[in-house]
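Good morning,

Attaching, inline, the backbone tokens for the sequence recovery test we're adding to the shared suite. The designed sequence is right after.
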């Protein structure tokens, strides 16, 4: 049986993040990828110059088209910039009931450009938190969702992850990639346990799409039948390797992409 993963996210015209990064990640990890595009972004390695949201009813049509034909094993949700689109996705999840859902609450691009309207954060919490398997916020996204300052150490990451659980999340992966220590530490927090995933921080400017890639890799693991802890560990290893290999790519003049196909391109 072919493992199938669906990404519901925005398109990155520069190819490094969003739908493009997700599909590359699925392919690199041996999973067939389908897509529901929620927005078009005019974007490159230097930033986002324009955003064109898809109509909510069209997002619904995309979701129904995929699920009515494909046996989707896992879903990744990325950029959802408006409340009506968030509601459409939540309705789709209720209707089709995919077994695993990964929510990456994308709010700000690597370049610093905001990708979500201010009123959409509350809708993500109320509409999607109860319906997903795990959420994967970075430090800034977790702070925005909680309306507090970003965590500066692992103890604060743990506290904020527990606070997100209380807001309705089933599991939280607090991503420490934007931290400043020598190690990049992620904390997987559930109601029953906490797991720590650490890797030496990679010194590279090619970090565009890192968060999308990690959440997509977790989704691919779910699609292949892996457990939550195992797929997070495998995804962390994949992204670390993609970052290490990114120096061999020379894409654009800003923050370049990670190397999704590092295991295949020679």
């Amino acid at each position: 049986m072919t493992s199938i993963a669906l990404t519901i996210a925005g398109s990155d015209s520069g190819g490094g993040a969003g739908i493009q990064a997700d599909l590359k990640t699925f392919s690199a990890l041996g999973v067939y990828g389908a897509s529901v595009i929620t927005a078009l972004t005019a974007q490159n390695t230097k930033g986002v110059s324009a955003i064109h949201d898809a109509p909510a009813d069209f997002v619904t049509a995309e979701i129904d088209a995929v699920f009515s034909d494909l046996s989707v094993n896992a879903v990744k949700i990325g950029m959802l910039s408006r409340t009506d689109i968030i509601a459409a996705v939540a309705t789709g999840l209720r209707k089709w009931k995919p077994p695993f859902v990964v929510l990456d609450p994308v709010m700000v691009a690597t370049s610093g450009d905001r990708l979500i309207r201010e009123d959409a954060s509350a809708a993500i919490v109320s509409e999607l938190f109860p319906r997903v398997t795990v959420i994967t916020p970075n430090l800034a996204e977790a702070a925005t969702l909680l309306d507090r300052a970003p965590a500066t150490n692992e103890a604060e990451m743990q506290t904020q992850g527990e606070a997100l659980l209380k807001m309705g999340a089933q599991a939280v992966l607090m991503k420490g990639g934007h931290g400043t220590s020598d190690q990049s530490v992620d904390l997987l927090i559930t109601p029953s346990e906490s797991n720590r995933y650490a890797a030496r921080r990679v010194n590279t400017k090619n970090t565009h799409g890192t968060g999308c890639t990690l959440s997509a890799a977790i989704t691919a693991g779910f699609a292949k039948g892996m457990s939550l802890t195992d797929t997070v560990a495998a995804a962390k290893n994949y992204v670390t390797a993609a970052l290490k290999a990114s120096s061999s790519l020379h894409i654009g003049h800003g923050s370049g992409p990670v190397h999704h196909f590092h295991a295949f391109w020679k």
